[in-house]
Write a structure and sequence with these properties.
Elements (H helix, E strand, L loop, with lengths): L7 E5 L4 H11 L4 E5 L15 H16 L3 E10 L17 H4 L6 H15 L6 E11 L5 E12 L15 E3 L11 H7 L1 H14 L2
Parallel strand pairs: 1-2, 1-3
Antiparallel strand pairs: 3-4, 4-5, 5-6
Bound molecules: inosinic acid.
């Protein structure tokens, strides 16, 4: 039997206001009151895991231990088949400008270009299959955990197209479509994305029948 959250307080282990808004809206119908780790002044743990599951659990566990409340964390990224699954858990790191220029900040165009450069180095027939992953981890203060994995398959497309999304959206064409995630309306992207897939599994198990 999987442990159930029920209604009540849930700490969202993110310091990102956008993620907190999105997750709060998704869980509002189930009577869950979301509080951000940032608002509680919880420290952000270092993500030392080598998988999305490990990193999501690290964040959820750190927040549950510090707050003594159930906590939800997510970890996500893009994996490219021909690159052995890279950038994977390092998706955000590949956009860190200081690796290249000694300046803080993220440069998504540079990160997408790095993937494209590696695919071009393989050759014109390189397999462009890729997928976004999203792992949601819940940790309870007593040590219990639950994990939900979501995935959206697609193709890495170059050059980047569209201005609606964020991160790697402009190069990701979901399977069965011709537009990138950044050309698709956000409401629709939220129905077909890796995050939607993971949330559907969480809601079904935590709040379903
Ligand atoms: P994290 O989950 O906050 O560690 O970030 C993972 C990185 O993956 C993000 O910074 C984005 O660049 C990328 N990513 C995750 N989900 C999406 C998405 O839906 N669209 C575009 N990029 C994404």
């Amino acid at each position: 039997m999987t442990r159930k959250l029920g209604s009540g307080k849930l700490v969202i282990a993110t310091h990102n206001a956008g993620k907190l808004r999105e997750i709060s809206a998704l869980l509002a119908p189930y009577g869950v009151e979301c509080i951000s780790a940032g608002a509680l002044g919880l420290p952000e743990p270092v993500e030392t895991g080598t998988t999305f599951v490990e990193n999501a659990l690290i964040k959820a566990r750190a927040a549950a231990d510090a707050s003594q409340l159930p906590c939800l964390a997510d970890d996500s990224g893009l994996s490219v088949a021909a690159l052995g699954g890279r950038p994977g858990v390092y998706t955000a790191d590949w956009a860190e400008r200081q690796w290249f220029e000694g300046e803080p900040g993220r440069d998504w165009y540079m990160a997408m270009g790095k993937v494209e450069g590696m695919l071009q180095a393989i050759g014109p027939d390189a397999d462009r299959a890729c997928w976004f992953s999203c792992v949601l981890a819940i940790a309870w203060p007593d040590g219990d955990t639950a994990v939900y994995e979501g995935r959206a398959d697609g193709t890495f497309s170059w050059p980047p197209r569209g201005g609606k999304g964020f991160g790697y959206d402009p190069v990701f064409v979901p399977s069965g479509r011709s537009e990138t995630f950044a050309e698709i309306d956000p409401e629709e992207k939220h129905r077909i994305s890796h995050r939607a897939d993971a949330f559907a599994k969480l809601v079904a198990e935590q709040f379903g029948g």
